[in-house]
Amino acid sequence: MYKWKRYRYWSIKKKLLFFSVLFILGSVFLASILSYSKYTMDFEQQSSEQVQQIIAQVSYNIDTYLDDLFRLTLSPYMNDGVMQTLEEDVQDSQLAQLKKRRFIDNYLEEMMIYPRKDINRVFILTDEIYTVGRMPISVDYDSRFQEFDWYKQAMNTQDSIFVPTHTQQMVKNGGPKVFSIVKQLRSTRDTEKILGAIKVDANYNGIAVICNKVDMGSGGGLFILDNNRNVIYRSTDRLNAVSLFNQVKAGGKPTMMIDQNGTSYLLNSTQLPRSNWTIVAVSSVKELNQKATETRNFGFFIAMACSLLAFVLMYFFVRRFLAPLLNIVKLMREVEQGNLQVSFPAHRNDEIGYLGTSFNGLVARVNEMLEENTQLVKQVYETELLQKEAQVQALYNQIRPHFLFNTLNMISMQMQTGKQDKAIDHLHKLSSMLRGMTRMDKDIPLQKELDLLKAYLSIQSSRYEGRLEYELQVDPALYDMPIPALLFQPIAENAVIHGCEAKRGKTCIRISGEKTARGEVLFTIQDSGQGMSAETLQKLRDKLERARPDYPSAGDSDADGIRAGTGIGLLNVNKRIKLKYGSGYGLQVDSVQGQGTAVYVRLPEAGFGRSVADV
């Protein structure tokens, strides 16, 4: 709220420049952010589509590669000699067995001349194991290949069988990691006769050649995994391929966004139907948007530079545009100071020129009215002067000079002891009291009367150094109620003088106010001072009861010598109430010696401002 109040006092030039800069920078910032967000969103979608196309092409190339291997298993059918040799039964002749092995081994060696260096070894499995490989290795010819699952599966189908990653079998001491293609071999003479199977083992060099052509950037990578989460190919070791594979399977979508170690990644995946391998392409979102970020920053820099230029130009424009208006404001301030001889040089035909002309006319009219009313003001002033002097003199006597002297001495002591804040606060409160006393002949809202009362009691509480406490419990619904000025202050002063000065301990003054069931408003000023004797209380009640509007005022002397005793302030307030509202309203006093005094102020709830004749 405080900052908003300060803003309200800004000059129009400052406000105009501030909001202009705010709107320009806000528009630039918002446009930059929205355009960057839209661009990155579209670019990420476009990149995702492009990556999906790339891995689809990789998938196609790998499928083509695997098809070549599948076709390789059909090569025996293209050599009649091999098929005839495989069908021969040579169990009874060792020489025939040796010739058969040499013939088939020669055929397999010719197959290994195949330019694909990723083919590791070829097996033909019939009554014996026939094999040739690129690298020398010890073959286990006694291996029971018939017990392998892939062999049993091949014997039950004429389709080619894909065997996932495994350690090469039918060799001694363990072979390398390979994947295999197995095809059932049938007789060409009797298609119902199964001769055995051909098995081609291959490593991943061919797949690596295909995948190495794909560049996913320094922050991304390309991975191929089988269903057993074996990593067939990886382009980088910085990313966890198995974790990425698990997230792809959990997401169930070919394209998805993930966060890993505080970094955002775009995942694209596809599956090879022939081998059940999954290709996972990983792209770093930060790397994808790097150019977009550079473009955004460059655009924002250009926009800021243009905004700064616009602000400089607007500053000079606003300064020149508002100069006549600010001149009028300056002239108005001079008029406020009493200089009515100012004039605006109205040589413009726009709205500011019209404003200047109107200002000149207004100043001239005010000057004329002041001259016309000068005599009337003098007469009124001379008429009221004596009345005011009399009121000031009465108020001086009412407040008591020693209160002012004591208060000023207290303020002086506070200034000397370094308590400037308290001294200034008491000066403000004393000023408020004296200013309020000048309106003694007027009605003021109850709220203002309570403020004056708080100021008085606060000063007295400081004087008595904590021996005086006060409490206000007035219904807030009564705050706008008009009452005569300084109605409660004399009562409170009476409570302070006669309740606190002569008492050593603490004294509490409580002021309360509420509506009654009789349509009246009852205020109570109660103190915990020494109180008064029954005899003194009765005398005071008799004087309050005898008070009439036509009796002498409290400022006059009376025959009872009441000025020197307790109750002059109460009689004064009581008479003011009866003069204003009638004899049915006024004060009542209760007191118990040693316990304190309570003063009740009874006022009408409605009908304020009525004269005595109206009551």
From TrEMBL:
It is a multi-pass membrane protein. PROSITE patterns: HAMP (PS50885). GO terms for molecular function: phosphorelay sensor kinase activity. Signal peptide: none annotated. The keyword Protein biosynthesis does not apply. Residues 319-371 form the HAMP domain. The chain crosses the membrane at residues 298-318. GO terms for cellular component: plasma membrane. Keywords: Cell membrane, Kinase, Membrane, Phosphoprotein, Transferase, Transmembrane, Transmembrane helix, Two-component regulatory system. InterPro entries: Bact_2-comp_sensor_kinase, dCache_1, HAMP_dom, HATPase_C_sf, HATPase_dom, Sig_transdc_His_kin-like_C, Sig_transdc_His_kin_internal. It comes from the Bacteria. The keyword Lipid biosynthesis does not apply. It is found in: Cell membrane. Its EC number is 2.7.13.3. Pfam families: dCache_1, HAMP, HATPase_c, His_kinase. Its main location: membrane. CDD domains: HAMP. It catalyses: ATP + protein L-histidine = ADP + protein N-phospho-L-histidine. This is histidine kinase. The lineage of its organism: Bacteria, Bacillati, Bacillota, Bacilli, Bacillales.
